[in-house]
């Protein structure tokens, strides 16, 4: 499995990537005309990183995902302690680029994703957005547009980790430089910068 960079990142010129990010996040950040999804990253970020909350369910709405009632009950009442334990076992947020071992399907992150998908009505896209709220530096968002642009329909997490780790974390550092150049908050992770570039590029292609 491989990870394909969006066209905007296939050369050393940052102009195209910067343009896509400005259109999404606004310039300055969250200025009128920004995408609704720009609010996802900083919506109520001072919440418990080891427990899903109502604010997480609100935040994913900015990414055009509506948590089903089954997820509201499971995450906020019926299975809240179970998911809290899994988040504790996964550990604190950290950069995917710094994960040195391959993310095989026995890894705790995959286990948490599988458990989220056992909730009726929660598929891979919703599960990834929920987990990205709790671990934005570690869990990339998956949806059909980003998957088509990056050629990750079948597999995303491990090919992306490999791409970020390559050449002394060159891609990871470039994404952070793009974020800082635009004055975006630190809550916007390197993964999210890549996600936005890929998604905006895909939408422009009509995907």
How would you sum up this structure, described in words?
The chain is mainly alpha-helical and 207 residues long. The chain contains 9 helices and no strands. The protein has helices spanning 15-25, 54-59, 69-78, 80-90, 108-117, 124-134, 144-150, 157-181, 190-204. The longest helix has 25 residues, at 157-181. It is globular, with a radius of gyration of 16 Å.
What is the SS-derived class?
mainly alpha
Outline the biggest β-sheet.
none
Level of helix content? 40-55%
**Number of discrete helical segments:** 9
* Total E-strand runs: 0
As a whole number of angstroms, the C-alpha radius of gyration is 16 Å
Globally, the shape reads globular
What string, H for helix and E for strand, traces the elements in order? Answer: HHHHHHHHH
The proportion of strand residues reads under 5%
Mean pLDDT: 97
Distance between the termini: 22 Å
Low-confidence stretches: none
Describe the protein's topology.
Elements: H1 15-25, H2 54-59, H3 69-78, H4 80-90, H5 108-117, H6 124-134, H7 144-150, H8 157-181, H9 190-204
Helix pairs in contact: 1-9, 4-5, 5-6, 7-9, 8-9
Keywords:
single chain; 207 residues; mainly alpha; 51% helix; 0% strand
């Amino acid at each position: 499995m491989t990870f394909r960079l969006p066209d905007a990142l296939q050369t050393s010129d940052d102009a195209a990537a910067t343009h896509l990010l400005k259109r999404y996040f606004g310039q300055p950040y969250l200025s009128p005309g920004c995408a609704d999804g720009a609010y996802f990253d900083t919506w109520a970020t001072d919440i418990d990183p080891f427990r899903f909350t109502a604010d997480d369910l609100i935040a994913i709405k900015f990414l055009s995902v509506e948590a089903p009632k089954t997820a509201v009950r499971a995450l906020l009442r019926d299975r809240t302690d179970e998911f809290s334990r899994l988040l504790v076992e996964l550990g604190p947020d950290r950069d995917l680029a710094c994960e040195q071992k391959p993310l095989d399907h026995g890894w705790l992150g995959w286990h948490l994703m599988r458990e989220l998908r056992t909730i009726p009505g929660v598929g891979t896209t919703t599960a990834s957005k929920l987990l990205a709220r709790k671990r934005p530096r570690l869990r990339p968002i998956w949806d059909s547009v980003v998957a088509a642009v990056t050629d990750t329909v079948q597999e995303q997490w491990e090919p992306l980790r490999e791409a970020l780790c390559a050449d002394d974390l060159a891609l990871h550092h470039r994404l952070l430089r793009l974020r800082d150049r635009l004055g975006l908050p630190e809550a916007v992770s390197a993964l999210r910068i890549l996600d936005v570039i890929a998604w905006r590029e895909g939408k422009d292609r009509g995907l």
